[in-house]
Design brief:
- By secondary structure, the chain is of the alpha+beta class.
- It has one domain.
- It has helices at 2-18, 156-162, 185-188, 200-210, 217-220; strands at residues 30-31, 51-54, 57-61, 64-68, 71-74, 81-83, 86-90, 93-97, 100-102, 125-128, 131-135, 152-153, 172-173, 194-195, 273-274, 291-292, 316-317.
- It starts with a helix and ends in a 22-residue tail after the last strand.
- 48% of the residues are buried.
């Protein structure tokens, strides 16, 4: 058993060493059993222009998996886009790959978080000069004069081209029952960008969730009371890491081949015995026995339309079937696993 564990840790170390520095920041977290399904929720309307949606996700803490609510976050610089983090399988463990800011949306494991993050790239909007325009086919925005002119548009085609069907709301890539999606060429563009890790206010937001007992799966059984933040996070401005790579008139998602078939990842959940309600989970020493009680699995009968440090290291050189109309709220169009 010790030898097996040592081999897994060695494999994980090799795996981490092969990941470009641009693709992560901070400490890797690995767990021996899969994260729960993504819950379905409704995206709160964007209260003012210039805010970027960061989808909710399952993080891992002292008492197991806990939900970090989705939130509207001011872009740290003009041209910035958010690439969500994701859980990926490797060496018998589920490894968390943190999200980051950059001029392009990169690879996030094919996880359909909703609200524009449909599995490949970002269909929720684009920068037009110094103004961010929202695709209201998948994003909820406010009303009134501030939302006129070039701040909104409707493009359902890009949504269809970039959606990975995920009717069971799987929240991880690879492994038993996981999403099968390798990085597409358009997702690899971001590997050549300079990236900025989450802002200090995003870190505070995640820390608050970690200290909220009700956010843990073993307390909410996959249905957190607080799915999305009611108010936007505070602004934190940074200089653009590399202005030469930012083209405000180009939407990375428009490089997707028109004939690309969306991938159907409507897998049956694996019949494994991972126990989400493990009270003795340890950050650094995950239990690899995959002891999963299926009776504690989250309710997966969700609507596809779902989506919601002060320590800033210097930016690092980082690295089908037609989707159902209901993508958000969890996943209505414009909503998330959500909309």
């Amino acid at each position: 058993m010790r030898m097996l564990r040592s081999m897994r840790l060695m494999f994980l170390a090799i795996l981490v060493s092969l990941i470009p520095a641009s693709s992560y920041a901070g400490v890797f977290i690995s767990v021996g059993f899969a994260p729960p399904a993504l819950p379905v929720y409704v995206q709160p309307p964007c209260p003012e222009p210039g805010l970027m949606w960061t989808p909710g996700y399952w993080a891992y803490g002292p008492d197991g998996y806990y939900w970090v609510p989705g939130a509207w976050v001011p872009a740290p610089y003009v041209g910035a886009l958010w690439t969500p983090g994701y859980w990926g399988w490797g060496g018998g463990l589920y490894v968390w790959h943190p999200g980051y800011w950059g001029p392009h949306v990169g690879y996030y494991g094919g996880v359909n978080y909703g609200f524009g993050y449909m599995g490949v790239g970002f269909a929720g909007g684009m920068w037009r000069g110094g103004v961010f325009a929202y695709n209201t086919a998948v994003m909820h925005v406010g009303v009134g004069g501030a939302w006129g002119g070039n701040r909104v548009y409707v493009d359902r085609t890009v949504v269809e081209r970039t959606t990975i069907i995920n009717n069971t709301h799987i929240s991880y890539n690879g492994g038993p029952g996981g999403i099968r999606h390798d990085p597409a060429p358009e997702e690899r563009i971001a590997e050549h960008d300079q990236h900025l890790e989450r802002t200090s206010f995003q870190t505070q937001h995640a820390d608050a969730a970690m200290h909220d007992h009700s956010a843990y799966f073993n307390a909410n059984h996959g249905h957190p009371a607080n799915m999305a933040a009611a108010r936007p996070l505070q602004a934190e401005n940074h200089p653009a890491p590399n202005r030469t790579v930012i083209n405000n008139n180009v939407n990375i998602n428009r490089n997707v081949n028109e004939n690309r078939n969306t991938v159907n990842n409507n897998y049956n959940r694996p019949n494994t015995e991972n126990n989400y309600n493990r009270s003795n989970n340890n950050f650094n020493r995950p239990n690899n026995e995959n002891n999963f009680n299926r009776n504690n699995r989250p309710n997966n009968e969700h609507n596809l339309d779902r989506p919601a440090n002060n320590n800033h290291p210097q930016p690092q050189e980082h690295s089908n079937p037609r989707p159902q109309e209901n993508h958000g709220g969890g996943h209505e169009e414009g909503h998330g696993h959500g909309r």
